[in-house]
Amino acid sequence: MVTVLVPGALRTDTAGESRLSVSAAGTLRAVLDEMDLHWPRLTRRIRDEQGKLRRYVNVYVDGEDCRQSGGLDTPVRDDAEIQVIPSVAGG
């Protein structure tokens, strides 16, 4: 089981849940595909129409930035923790 930590800004798409349990593992893509079955609005905020990670969303697998470790093909072990962090803009 993989744990996905959801920040407050995205919890409207998870009925207020801050921690999601996802049965998929293997790659980040597999986890997001499984999430899409249960929380499609959330995954649309993480991935674009082509299925790629959105530029303004950072995803960490066990503390490692997935953009530095394979993107959607980042390995995800069975008991991994994934953190989703939307970028904050402002002046």
How would you sum up the global shape? globular
Low-confidence stretches: none
The total number of structural domains is 1
CATH architectural type:
Roll
Radius of gyration: 12 Å
Name the features.
91 residues; alpha+beta; Ubiquitin-like (UB roll); five-stranded mixed β-sheet; two-stranded antiparallel ribbon; 7 strands; 20% helix; 27% strand; globular; SAMP1_3; Molybdopterin converting factor small subunit; Sulfur_Carrier/Prot_Modifier; Beta-grasp_dom_sf
Care to describe what's here?
The structure is a single chain. The protein is an alpha+beta fold and 91 residues long. The protein has a single domain (2-86), classed as Ubiquitin-like (UB roll). Helix content is 20%, strand content 27%. The chain contains 2 helices and 7 strands, in the order E-E-E-H-H-E-E-E-E. The chain has helices at residues 28-38, 40-46; strands spanning 2-5, 19-22, 26-27, 57-61, 64-65, 75-76, 81-86. It has a 5-stranded mixed beta sheet, with helices on one face. Strand 4 (57-61) and strand 5 (64-65) form a beta hairpin. Helix 1 crosses helix 2 (40-46). The radius of gyration is 12 Å and the shape is globular.
